[in-house]
């Protein structure tokens, strides 16, 4: 028999929801509304006033070649972070699901990076891969491998991708591990009795049953790459060298707080939000059809 919670007072559910609704309105909807409003104005950086310009900020963006460069950098960066991050997390989850001895220790060590703040992640990876003092960079130099993310665009992209994946991999690992543990062992054992190889069992049984988890994590990781990697990029490369790691969210920051062009920054924020919403809708419209719930 299904059990349902019955509230004795009609206003109690609304009171319980009120804190979360207040946080959402104050820290999400209110800033989004401000960005939309700001995108229609040309503002003086020193508070001298503002002028309504309509869609001029948007038109200027679409006529700016550097904005298109930032867009393609974001596409490459987000695809690398999402695809490699999910693949590595799934591999670790499969390995953790098979561990018998020290399983708790192994899982705890993988989960730890999620507790580290993004800014701290950036500092850690800068110390490891700094051409002058980084332990990993020095070791690469001893092997004859040239590494300088301050001058080489490819090295800088590799650095921010690795740091972003490391920060998010614990989150992906937790969901994949939970999904693996929810799969009935009887299905895998039946396939093994039928002579299916480990790879065949994973590809034909395990991975299809993980498709809802994979689809959810794909959306979360794309949103993470678009929005939540700002601190990592700011600490490690600051969008450089040149504009090789200048993703859209970092370009919003530079336009507002370095160029003091708040109208253009607001327009970029609105466009970035629309891109993420459109991407999410496309994923639900087309990729969701291949998900087996």
UniProtKB/TrEMBL annotation:
TM spans (from-to): 12-32, 71-94, 115-141, 156-180, 201-227, 267-287
Bilayer topology: Multi-pass membrane protein
Top-level taxon of origin: Bacteria
Subcellular location: Cell inner membrane; Cell membrane
Keyword Methyltransferase: no
A single cellular component GO annotation: plasma membrane
Keywords: Cell inner membrane, Cell membrane, Membrane, Transmembrane, Transmembrane helix, Transport
GO biological process: transmembrane transport
Stored InterPro entries: MetI-like, MetI-like_sf, UgpAE/MalFG_permease
Annotated ranges, domain ABC transmembrane type-1: 71-283
Quaternary assembly: The complex is composed of two ATP-binding proteins (UgpC), two transmembrane proteins (UgpA and UgpE) and a solute-binding protein (UgpB).
Family as reported in the entry's similarity comment: Belongs to the binding-protein-dependent transport system permease family.
Entry protein name: sn-glycerol-3-phosphate transport system permease protein UgpA
């Amino acid at each position: 028999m299904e059990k349902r919670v019955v509230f004795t007072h009609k206003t109690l559910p609304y009171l319980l929801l009120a804190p979360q609704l207040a946080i959402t309105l104050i820290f999400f909807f209110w800033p989004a509304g401000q960005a939309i409003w700001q995108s229609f104005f040309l503002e003086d950086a020193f508070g001298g006033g503002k002028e309504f310009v309509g869609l001029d900020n948007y038109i200027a963006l679409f006529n700016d070649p550097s904005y298109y460069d930032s867009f393609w950098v974001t596409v490459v960066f987000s695809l690398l972070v999402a695809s490699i991050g999910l693949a590595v997390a799934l591999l670790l989850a499969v390995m953790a699901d098979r561990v018998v001895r020290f399983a708790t220790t192994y899982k705890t060590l993988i989960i730890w990076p999620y507790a580290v703040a993004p800014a701290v992640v950036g500092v850690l990876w800068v110390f490891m891969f700094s051409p002058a003092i980084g332990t990993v960079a020095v070791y690469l130099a001893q092997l004859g491998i040239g590494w300088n993310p301050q001058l080489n665009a490819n090295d800088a992209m590799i650095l921010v991708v690795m740091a972003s994946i490391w920060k998010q991999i614990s989150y992906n690992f937790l969901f994949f591990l939970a999904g693996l543990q929810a799969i009935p062992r009887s299905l895998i054992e039946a396939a093994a009795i039928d002579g299916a190889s480990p790879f065949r069992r994973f590809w034909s049984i395990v991975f299809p049953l993980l498709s809802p988890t994979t689809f959810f994590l794909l959306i979360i990781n794309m949103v993470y790459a678009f929005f939540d990697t700002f601190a990592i990029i700011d600490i490690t490369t600051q969008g450089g060298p040149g504009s090789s790691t200048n993703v859209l969210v970092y370009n919003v920051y530079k336009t507002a707080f370095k160029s003091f062009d708040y109208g253009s920054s607001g327009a970029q924020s609105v466009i970035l939000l629309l891109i993420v919403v459109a991407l999410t809708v496309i994923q639900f419209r087309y990729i969701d059809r291949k998900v087996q719930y």
